[in-house]
Write a structure and sequence with these properties.
The protein has 87 residues and is mainly alpha-helical. It is built from two helices and two strands. It binds zinc ion. The site of zinc ion has 7 residues, from helix 1.
Length: 87
């Protein structure tokens, strides 16, 4: 793994540092997800529960994004179909 010297975090930005490898993250939940995926054996019960919560939240956000993307594709399809029918 890489160490903190490989990352350049501006001094004015807040960051959440991984206690195991020192990698900085812009959001606390990203660090939680990173720790659960990369350092799973080092987590205690509270950390595991935090990881599961962040994972569930990320999963539902992804589902919403897929649904919106599908809706946008359907709308685009019908718009192009109407243009094709008229022109
Ligand atoms: Zn780490």
């Amino acid at each position: 793994m890489t160490d903190t010297d490989d990352y350049h975090v501006p001094a004015t930005e807040s960051m959440y540092e991984c206690p195991s490898c020192g990698r900085p993250f812009a959001r606390e939940e990203w660090r939680t997800l990173h720790r659960g995926l990369e350092h799973a054996s080092e987590l205690d019960d509270a950390d595991v529960e935090q990881f599961r919560e962040a994972y569930r939240s990320e999963d539902s956000e992804l589902r919403l994004f897929r649904l919106k993307a599908l809706a946008a594709l359907v709308v685009l399809y019908f718009v192009l179909l109407m243009i094709y029918a008229v022109v």
